[in-house]
Amino acid sequence: MSTDSEKTDPWQSKTAVLTGASSLFALSLGLLVLVLQRGSNAGSNVLWALACTGLGGLVGFLFGIPRGSRGDNGKSSGQERAGVEGTTNPSSAASPTSLERVSDWLTTVFLGLTLTQLQEIPSKVVRAASYIAGGAGASDADRTVAAALIVYFSTVGFLGGYLLTRLFLGPALTQADQITEALRDELEKAAKGVDSSQPKGLPPTQKQMVIAQKIGAMSLKTDRAAIHDQVIAVAREYERTRSAMPPSDERTRRMETVVAKMRALAYAAQDLLPELKSSDLPGDRLACIAFLQVKPRVDYVPWLAERLPVEKPFVSYHAAVALRAAALHLEDAELPAVMSALERGRELLQGKPADTDRDKTLVAALKELSDREKKRSQAA
Question: What is the spatial distance between Cα 210 and Cα 186, in angstroms, rounded to a whole number?
């Protein structure tokens, strides 16, 4: 995926290197002049110079943090990307990051104090210079050097911190937002691709697998927290849909679109399987099950079988679909564990209401296992 920020990377890199080199040169030049002027007494002055540079750099960093990197585009995108059929995806709403909030607050306080104390600044600088120079007994020359030290190194630090923050952090946030936006687009494609006429009990389609692989590749370029937030948002979407609507074909259809989104995140969020498996929330467990439909794992097969009698019918049905996916896609050496899980699942479903196609799905999976065994025997 090519983005505008990626296209301007060479220019940005050169500018960032030039800015960094210029800041380092200005800092080195100031330190050199300070050492030459103060001689053997330059030690404490160098420390104060570095302290002023660091403080100026911190202020420059706070001022340089891009505001509203999600901006109007983020807001409109959040409105346009409402969830399927009116269910809003909260993760798509534009909001400032914690860093932006802290930066806004600190810069507001800093500017407010500066403007209200503007007339006092020269006298405060003089007092600070007198303290750095050694107190009341310091000479006028020492106080002059100390005042110049404060102004020069604070300015160098501020400009360096501001420019480097704008050059590095701004493009990084922009690129991260573009990737996140593209990820949301792929999730909506997955949701819109649900075919209600498709036979029940089938594992993910080839189209869904392709989307999951694409999102998995995109996730390598974005923050893991963003992927985690997407997964949790989709899990909560399932819970809201189930609680807000009475049992009906329409509710089932909407919940299937949520499962399609979960499947799309399977490759991107494999590391979340343990967390989702052990969660007390049904949406999280459904996400874990949907991931296992896309990428089956033999160590989760017994857990899927145990889900069948205890979960709500919709979640239980998808656990059966995940077992069928395991029967189709796991390695031959792992099939005995799948067979045991399928048989265990059928035992656990005995006496349960036939309100979903769970048992039919398990029977189909057993037949597919038998067919695989026959093919393997013929090949041998």
Answer: 10
Distance from the Cα of residue 332 to its chain's centroid: 36
pTM assigned to the model: 0.61
User: In angstroms, how far is CA 241 from the centroid of its own chain?
Assistant: 24
Rounded Cα distance, 361 and 321, in Å: 6
Q: Which residues contact 273 (CB under 8 A, 6 or more apart)?
A: 288, 291, 292, 297, 300
What is the dihedral sign for C-alpha 345, 346, 349, 354? positive
Of residues 11 and 307, more confidently modeled: 307
Burial degree of 176 (CB within 10 A; 0-12, 13-18, 19+)? middle
Residues 328-376 have pLDDT tens digits of 999 989 999 999 999 999 999 887 776 668 888 999 999 999 988 888 8
Q: Which of 210, 313, 310 is nearest to 260 (CA)?
A: 210
Residue 69: both structure tokens together: 């990197």
List the chain domain ranges: 4-187, 198-374
Residue of 177, 148, 142 whose CA lies nearest to 66: 177
Could you give the residue ranges of the DSSP H alpha helices within the chain? Answer: 4-7, 9-38, 42-64, 71-80, 98-116, 121-133, 140-192, 206-219, 224-244, 249-264, 273-277, 282-294, 301-310, 313-329, 335-349, 358-379
Contacts of 49 (CB under 8 A, 6+ apart): 30, 31, 34, 149, 153
CA distance 98 to 294: 34
Distance of alpha carbon 339 from alpha carbon 177, whole angstroms: 45
| Residues 6 or more apart whose Cβ sits within 8 Å of residue 137 | none
Q: How many CA atoms lie within 13 A of 109 on its CB side?
A: 8
Supply angle C-alpha 81, 216, 224, rounded to 5: 80
